[in-house]
Amino acid sequence: MGGQPLFILDEDAQRTHGKDAQSSNISAGKAVSESVRTTLGPRGMDKMLVSDDGDVVITNDGATILSEMDIEHPAAQMIVEVAQTQEDEVGDGTTTASVLAGELLAKAEDLLDDDVHPTTIVEGYHAAAQLAQASIEENVLDVDLDDDTLVEVAESSMTGKGTGDVEAGRLAEVVVDAVRHAKTDTGVVRDNIEIYTQTGAASSATELVEGVIIDETPVHDNMPTSVEDAEIAVVDAELGVKESNIDASYNVTNVDELNAALDAEQEELQGYAKAIVDSGADVAFVTDDISDLVASTLAKEGIFAAENVDSSTAKDIVETTGAKRVGSVEDLTEEALGHAESVAVEKHGDDEVTFIRGGAAAESVTVFARGSTDHVVDEIERALNDALDVVVAALDKGGVVPGAGATEIAIADEIRSEAASIEGRKQLAVEAFADAVDVLPRTLAENTGLDAIDALVDLRSEHESEGIAGIISEGQTGVVGDPVEYGILDPAAVKREAVDSATEAATMIVRIDDVISSS
Asked: How far apart are CA 69 and CA 79, in angstroms?
């Protein structure tokens, strides 16, 4: 080579390898996990996130916190992805998954310091994760998922989150009613449940609307603002004078020709209005513009019409009322019309919105969420989304398990009892996994004001003697008790997904021993 240096990477590239790379990645993952740890449980605290533009988000939702944080470290971003995956798959448990991933990394760091090979740690963690999944299945409760049980599931997911002036139980009842309306023979159609938020009232005013709420209002001041027993048309066309697609000019030489042109234009517009009237429609939602003449004519006929309705809203109207979207008013027939018990404009605060209630198709329902400020409304919306998702998960993805850390105590106990049968250093990783799972009940204890070590000892003792034990928040502190008796239940799917996603992220980070970044 003649003594010449050999450059494989760009001279500006940065490389970290070996224990330095492992330590850097693990530290970054742990730091992200710690940032959401204090939000866990009914006594968890909120975080205030302020953007560069001064926008403020106040929440204790793990996925929201991590998505709002400006995280650059690639390993830390993997923990963010854990929370996002958890959110996408089951809608809740994001903090649980993130905290578990961080603790798995912390235990892996100790094992690496003891010269346990990363591959051995990975194998042990995967073996322990399988034991954890088996334990979750064993802890699924043999209960009927009736409304009372589902209310407990929904309330458990919302307890400790910002719900304004109303108890979580009241919102949980609204959530369960919404899910029951969206339930079919093949499962719950989650997309048929919308949340519409509006400031200007206390959160206790939150209600379920059997139908949809839209921002559109009548295009003309003289149109009715309330229609009962409404026949509804949805039109995908512009109700105005059609323009030529070619660049043409017309030579008008006298008044008669001008009047003839104006008469033809007026006749065209009147034809649009007449077609809607003749169809029998009381209400028309148009996805394009409505000319002033058409609007005025429809107003005289007592027809409610809204223009520039976006495609998503039109889809919701169709699914609620059973209407058919037509490409022109000429296609409007009685069979193309939908039906609703009422279409009414209501004023809330300074805003007017339209409620379409009691649609004939009745496939969509809307949770009308209220709150005194934008921050309160945003947090209520997040809480309601989580509650809806956990109720759907309980119904469609394998039932419920005890909450309050009881399932985690059972998982850790099961893994420790099986660890003795695992040979070699992999046993150390399996036992480390069990210790990592303990972080969840330990954190619940800390957040409720208990001594974490004493609480963990009491939990294990209660679990051994009674078979079930969790951290119950009471007043300004917590007690060890049976979470089922207190109505604290979690979907089994949330626990399964948290174990899987946290294990995958932690093992992926542990296996990295070289980080190469370009300038």
From this structure: 12
Residue 292 backbone phi and psi in degrees, to 5: -60, -40
| Sequence-distant (≥ 6) Cβ neighbours of residue 217 within 8 angstroms | 225, 306, 345, 352, 353, 354
Tens digit of each residue's pLDDT (9 = 90 or more) over 75-128? 788 888 888 888 888 878 888 888 999 999 999 999 988 989 989 999 999 999
For residue 191, what is the enclosing H or E element?
Answer: none
| b (16+ CB within 10 A) / e for 334-353 | eebbbbbbebbbeeeeeeeb
CA neighbor of 327 nearest in space, from 401, 235, 430, 215:
235
What integer pLDDT is reported at residue 171 of this predicted model? 87
Distance from C-alpha of 293 to C-alpha of 276, rounded to nearest angstrom: 14
Structural contact between residues 388 and 188, judged by C-beta atoms closer than 8 angstroms: no
**SS3 label, residue 70:** coil
8 Å CB contact between 317 and 214: yes
What confidence score (pLDDT) does residue 6 get?
47
Task: Confirm if 41 and 160 have CB atoms less than 8 A apart.
Answer: yes
Which pLDDT tens digit goes with each residue over 419-450? 888 888 899 999 999 999 999 999 988 888 88
- To the nearest whole percent, how much of the chain has pLDDT over 90? 33
Residues labelled as active-site residues? 61, 94-95, 386
214 phi and psi angles, rounded to 5 deg: -130, 155
Pick from 167, 161, 142, 182: nearest CA to 388: 182
Whether 46 and 39 have beta carbons less than 8 Å apart is answered as yes
Percent of the chain, pLDDT > 70?
88
**Apex 107 CA angle, 106 and 111, nearest 5:** 120
| Helix (H), strand (E) at residue 169 | helix 168-182
- Tens digit of each residue's pLDDT (9 = 90 or more) over 311-335: 888 988 988 898 999 988 888 998 9
pLDDT in tens, 284-293: 999 999 999 8
480: tokens are 């060890």
d(CA 198, CA 350): 10
Read off φ and ψ for residue 159, nearest 5 degrees: -60, 125
Q: What is the pLDDT of residue 415?
A: 94
Encoded amino acid at 49, one letter = L
The answer for residues whose C-beta is within 8 angstroms of residue 417's C-beta and 6 or more apart is none
Question: Which value, to the nearest 10 degrees, does the dihedral of the CA atoms of residues 243, 246, 247, 251 take?
Answer: -70
> Residue 55, Cβ neighbours under 10 Å: how many?
9
Q: Identify whether the C-beta of residue 467 lies closer than 8 Å to the C-beta of residue 482.
A: no
Q: How far apart are CA 505 and CA 52, in angstroms?
A: 29
Q: Are 25 and 101 in contact (CB under 8 A)?
A: no
Contacts of 42 (CB under 8 A, 6+ apart): 159, 160, 448, 473
